[in-house]
Structures are given as structure tokens and as C-alpha cells.
Amino acid sequence: MQVLGIVGPSDSGKTTLVERLAERLSGDGRVATVKHLKTEPTVDTEGKDTARHRAAGAAVTFGITDDAGWFATGADRSLDETLDEVAADADYALVEGYSASPLPTVALGGRDHAGETVATAPEADAVDLDEVVAAVDALEPYESLGSLVAEVKASPDARYAGAIATFTGRVRTQEDADDEPTEHLEFEKYDGVAEERLATIRSELEARDGVHEVRMHHRTGVVEAGEDIVFVVVLAGHRREAFETVEDGIDRLKDEVPLFKKEVTVDDAFWSHERPE
């Protein structure tokens, strides 16, 4: 899934730009949109509101219409959780209003933002849609465990598969209770070489008897304590091939792919190959 942020002042036309990009991108794939709301939303579909359910104590509510449309409301949901979920069935996600999120971003009206700048303009009407669409397609895809599982399930060989095995690596806060807590890790990759190594590992694993599909993804940039770092997903005929291939996949990824890790603790920061003894 390709993800793009759109930020700007309230009079800069953020929503207009989201509408125009959604219309353009929908011809190439399924588009999801996420909007930052500063106040509690009121959702009403044909006069049927779930606000009473929320007031009664429901943490999450869903409304489903006869024509398969739907809406949802809830609490305590983050942007990352939302993107992880929609990545399983969307090709694009347009995220409006999250200036502090490190997403590739179109910034309107001089709005400051935390992510990589894709384009800037004083207002929506001044944005070159062709350039933005081309830039979006060139971005590194956003992957989640769910999106990788969905990919292997879509394999033409899925009918021969009786097992999907997965591995998820995450940022461990402490090795034990006496350790200095880790705040976050930061990963950099050797561009080009890292992708080639991953492709080679995947191809060799998929050549095994009984293995139909392999997907691997390692996040780069800042990954906070408790967040997921790396995924390996294997579609195989039987559980034994699936388990063995997942284990070999993560071992080879760690040993062969040029990724560099910086650890930031509450008191220190160091690259893993320079860790003090």
C-alpha cells in the first residue's frame, strides 16, 4: 500500500486535494482515506446513529447498510493501527491532517510536517496532480503483517496450501528487569543492495519443495519500543515446511541483508556495531 499525507491550514483545501487524488488513484487501485478529527465525530447514516450505543458503554460501534456500505466509531485507535488494518486490502491510503506523523507528505500553505516532503503548494489548486501521483507510485510501500498475509492468500497456488506461518519481530524494551529501557530503535538500509538481497532470499526460499509464497519486510526509520520491526510470511503445503522456512527466512534476513540499527535508551544512543562493552 502506498501512503501519502496531506497537511495544511483549514483554508488551504486539504479535503479538496484528498478528493482529487482519490479520484485519480481509484483508477489504479483501491483507495482508503484517513482524516484527523479534533473533536468527537457524529456519524449518521440515513438517520440511524450509533451515538447511543457509545454513550451506553460500547467501545467500538459499526453501522452496516443494506447496500454493503458501512461506518464505524470507537476510541483509543491510533493512526498506525488504522494503517496496519487498511493495508490488507487497500492499494493507496490518503491521510489528511496528521502533521506530526512521519509520512511522505504534501504540505499546503507552508504547514510544518514531520515526514518526507513530496510536494508543497500554497493551496490545493496549485498542486500538480500528475507529479504527485507519480511520486506516490515511487514511494516504498507500507506493509503490515495483515497485508503480507493477504498477499500470500491471493496466490494462484493457495489452493495447494494447508499452512501459513508468520514471524513478527518487535522492539523489546528490556532484556530483563535490570536493563536500561530502550526508547526506540532506528534502522537504515543500504539502498538497492538491501532490496536485491531480500529478493534473492525470497526466490531461494520459494524454490523449496512445498513452499508456494514467501514475503519479508523490515521497517526502516524510527521504530518505538513495543512496535513491530520485521515480518516473515510463508504459504506452504504443510506446517513443517512453513515453520522451517519462516525460521530460515528471518535468520537469513538478519545475517545477509545490510540493515544498520541504532539503539536509543533512556541514557544513551549507539549503533549496534559500536555498542559499548
Topology:
Blueprint: E1 2-7, H1 14-25, E2 31-35, E3 44-45, E4 48-49, H2 51-55, E5 60-64, E6 70-74, H3 79-86, E7 92-96, E8 105-108, E9 117-121, H4 129-137, H5 145-153, E10 163-170, E11 182-189, H6 193-206, E12 211-218, E13 221-224, E14 228-236, H7 239-256, E15 259-265, E16 269-271
Parallel strand pairs: 1-7, 1-8, 2-7, 8-9
Antiparallel strand pairs: 3-4, 5-6, 10-14, 11-13, 11-15, 12-14, 15-16
Characterise this structure.
The chain is an alpha/beta fold and 277 residues long. The protein has two domains: 2-137, P-loop containing nucleotide triphosphate hydrolases (Rossmann fold, 3-Layer(aba) Sandwich), CATH 3.40.50.300; 145-274, Aldehyde Oxidoreductase, domain 3. 27% of the residues lie in helices and 31% in strands. It is built from seven helices and 16 strands. The longest helix is centred in the C-terminal third of the chain and has 18 residues, at 239-256. It is globular, with a radius of gyration of 21 Å.
Integer-rounded radius of gyration = 21 Å
Major sheet strand order: 2-7-1-8-9
Global morphology: globular
The H/E string reads EHEEEHEEHEEEHHEEHEEEHEE
N- to C-terminal distance: 41 Å
Short description:
The protein is an alpha/beta fold.
Structural key phrases:
single chain; Aldehyde Oxidoreductase, domain 3; 277 residues; alpha/beta; 4-stranded antiparallel β-sheet; 2 domains; 16 strands; Rossmann fold; 7 helices; 5-stranded parallel β-sheet; 31% strand
